């Protein structure tokens, strides 16, 4: 097989609360570089690691990670709704391979996903049904979160399982880096909020619109500096990117949940998707980063990064 990896931040505020034109142009440049990279690599399978924001996974059962053999997008924040083009056979084969390697994977035969999965597919492929995909949910918001070493183990096991497929596999991580959007928290939540987080009642259109407006307003406040949210942390974000670029992925085993949250805010744990993607690529051999972009973008509530990596030649 051949393999590559892309890490891409997401934000539902893109196009809704945009930064200055020069920042926007730099992002568009970096994204175009990633698109060219993906076009040249021409993957015939995408393993997509992404988080959820209480649209598909709830506290009634909250797995640390979960692989889908079928998936439907809810269409939050104007993202595409409907079925993802899941490669069910590849998904089943990867699931078996991961379980065989001793990682206790949860499998969903019909996963519900949100903008975390949809946005990278739209941005890089122009839609949610353009390329065979294996969606892998990685919990990055719902505490308690387990050790990052287990996410690296998941990524490694999926990379090893993918390596026996005769495919061109792109490992794609969606989310991060440091950011602290107003995602609800179960601990201390009022009973109605707690019930929603546990049961996952689908919101009415009015409730969804109110929630989305709250996030958009938070982006405006974050950019204006008038907020108690944890600020974007470029130093920490670059430490994360340096670690992924260096290939010293075992470093992440020492990263504690508390440290990550303190440095990068409540949603910094979305970088777990990047760690999984790069661990998968690393499991297929040594790799090198071919592009790397970073900008703190408070308007989007995102330490925003795009990275592409390929297998080292002459392996
Ligand atoms: O849907 C939500 O509740 C949170 C939305 C959200 C906002 C900013 C950055 C993100 O990465 C993100 O996911
Ligand atoms: Fe997110």
TrEMBL record:
Catalyzed reactions: 3-(2,3-dihydroxyphenyl)propanoate + O2 = (2Z,4E)-2-hydroxy-6-oxonona-2,4-dienedioate + H(+); (2E)-3-(2,3-dihydroxyphenyl)prop-2-enoate + O2 = (2Z,4E,7E)-2-hydroxy-6-oxonona-2,4,7-trienedioate + H(+)
Cofactors that this protein relies on: Fe(2+)
Protein name: 2,3-dihydroxyphenylpropionate/2,3-dihydroxicinnamic acid 1,2-dioxygenase
Listed pathway(s): Aromatic compound metabolism; 3-phenylpropanoate degradation
Species assigned in the record: Streptomyces qaidamensis
Function field: Catalyzes the non-heme iron(II)-dependent oxidative cleavage of 2,3-dihydroxyphenylpropionic acid and 2,3-dihydroxicinnamic acid into 2-hydroxy-6-ketononadienedioate and 2-hydroxy-6-ketononatrienedioate, respectively.
One Pfam family, short name: LigB
Assembly, per entry: Homotetramer.
Keywords: Aromatic hydrocarbons catabolism, Dioxygenase, Iron, Oxidoreductase
Active site (catalytic residues): 115, 179
Gene Ontology molecular function: any one: ferrous iron binding
EC top class named in words: oxidoreductase
Classification via InterPro entries: DHPP/DHXA_dioxygenase, Xdiol_dOase_suB
